[in-house]
Amino acid sequence: MNDFISITGQGIVCAIGNDAAQVLSSLRDGRSGIGPMKYLRSKHADIPVGEVQLSNDLMKEMLGVDRDAVYSRTSLMGAIAVRQALEQAGIADTAGKRVVLISGTTVGNMDITISNDNECGASTRDIAALCSLEDAKTCTISTACSSALNAIILGCEMLRSDEADIVIAGGSEALSRFHFNGFNSLMILDHEQCRPFDSSRNGLNLGEGAAFVVLQKNVPDALAYVSGYGNRCDAFHQTASSENGEGAFLAMSGALTMAGLSPSDIQYVNAHGTGTQSNDISESRALKRVFDSNMPQVSSTKPFTGHTTSASGSIETVICILAMREGFTPANLGWKTPDADGITPTMGQEKAILHNVMCNSFGFGGNDSSLILSDRPVMLQDVEPVFGTKVAAIQEIGPDDDMSELKAFIPAMELRRMGPLMRASILTALLSLKKAGLERPDAIVTATADGMLEVSRQFQKDIIENDEELLKPTLFMQSTHNTIGSAIAIRTLCHGYNITYSHGDESEYWAMEDATRMIRSGKASSVLVTVFDEAGPSAFQAKSTVIVRK
Amino acid sequence: MDELILKLKQQIIEVLNLEEMTPDDIDDDAPLFGDGLSLDSIDALELIVILDKYYGIKLASPAEGKVVFASVNAMAEYIREHRTR
């Protein structure tokens, strides 16, 4: 039997509004949320940001929790968005239903943890508790800036494979001194309002916020329907995008193929469009490769909201739903001058008929995803378990193991930046693939509870000791949870599905479930699962498992 | 080897973790990016931190680095002209 995926509820809080209605009116009026920082504490206060105009105290009041209760800004914003989404979907009682809450985040509870130990899953569990979803299964995805879109994609997959009845998926990310200083060390923060796709663009503005959608199967008269998606990897560089936008091209093409749509069927694309030199030219080229002479209206809404990093995929999904339902296209605010080779974005259209819209969301490490939403139900093929799975190889490495073999695989110029955890993880991946007789897997799935603890701790320490100056971009670049997944993709030139789970002790469980689902449904014939964590410079463990079709 | 050039090479080796290299391995005139040392965009940012940290020079954008970081010699020349410490 074929099913369709309905979006029955949406919730959003970001710099241009604390709910969907406010966001809609800001979009239509061309009102940007970029301005001076109010809640974020940084000495670089001259750099503008897109903050949610709510204090933590006010959010606690809105949620009816005690002022002394300890919740991170990420959890509070997330809970507000989830409650809005559940209310709109009319879901009050979830008894007897299999409910799953999937959140995308990288910052997580960083603002309330004492050290920089960053277990992303804690914020997702807090959101569940704040929304009376204690009985729901929870999951956290951390693929940097594409986290929330990948959360929505996972939600759809779980519905299609009949593992859930109701999925609440999206992402939440608060501004933090950690990633604000990180992006500043990469010298990609514009000191004015960002200008995606403009020849004068000079970087991005960081924003914050949360958005979640309720996904259910076969509900008619829904807000919108998911018709296709693609998750691919650029496999090019940890922070830069490839010249021809290969990962983005593959993600968009994959989404179109799944939806059974041609490029001319898409009326609007909400681009990732960060405003950095690298992203915008790469995305422009990818868009031209996909759409050629059928280029739809394209805009980046980041001049409104700022780049809400891990939450951007769901925030922009909600913006796409609003545009489609209300019949308009949002402007690429601030755009004036065309860029050689770049696309010409739309400055907004008041009346537009949108049947199919695409939302792009790309992350560091080339974790590129694309989602297509439609205004009418689109039947999707079942994700049926038709194949068996088998473990082809397992490789584990700990601190006492010899890692000199790595030199045979990786040139010294690439090895030089890698700490022990990354070396161990990549070596397990390469050795397990070799054992399995594979040059590269079809997909890469990684899992980590705390992520890149050592580099993150060092970067956090430098922020404090150097007073937010002279920070090492190399440390920040390696601090994201998906660093290892993308490093393996770069090494093996694997452009396939690439994802990172960071949900405490359950990270590995979610990774194995995903790998199994991919093999069983025939989406991949081999999946590399790499699980890694560290507790100190000489306390780390990495394990890679190659799962193949039986 | 010129004192500034030697110092600079040591700083580059340390900051960029060029573990197996010595100052003698880096040609004064060879390009740091592209065909020479093959450094990348993140290394360029690390070199900007070197200029700031040890020589008190602030570059406004990575684009300026293209000329400044052409070679170790070019970098040393830029430092001699612009250093504040």
Write up what this structure looks like.
- The complex is a heterodimer of chains A (550) and B (85).
- With 550 residues, chain A is α/β, with parallel strands linked by helices.
- Chain A has helices spanning 20-29, 56-63, 73-89, 121-130, 147-160, 177-185, 246-259, 277-291, 302-305, 312-326, 406-409, 412-415, 420-435, 453-465, 473-477, 483-492, 507-520; strands at residues 5-14, 99-104, 137-141, 166-173, 209-217, 224-233, 268-270, 297-299, 356-363, 367-374, 389-397, 443-447, 498-501, 526-536, 539-549.
- In chain A, the strands form 2 sheets. Chain A has a 10-stranded mixed beta sheet, sandwiched between helices. In chain A, strands 11-15-14-12-13 form a 5-stranded mixed beta sheet, sandwiched between helices.
- In chain A, a hairpin with a 2-residue loop joins strand 14 (526-536) and strand 15 (539-549).
- The longest helix of chain A is centred in the N-terminal third of the chain and has 17 residues, at 73-89.
- The mean pLDDT of chain A is 96.
- Chain B is 51% helix and 0% strand.
- By secondary structure, chain B is mainly α.
- Chain B starts with a helix and ends with a helix.
- The radius of gyration of chain B is 12 Å and the shape is globular.
- At the A-B interface, helix 15 of A face helix 2 of B.
Summarize the structure.
The complex is a heterodimer of chains A (550) and B (85). Chain A has helices at residues 20-29, 56-63, 73-89, 121-130, 147-160, 177-185, 246-259, 277-291, 302-305, 312-326, 406-409, 412-415, 420-435, 453-465, 473-477, 483-492, 507-520, and strands at 5-14, 99-104, 137-141, 166-173, 209-217, 224-233, 268-270, 297-299, 356-363, 367-374, 389-397, 443-447, 498-501, 526-536, 539-549.
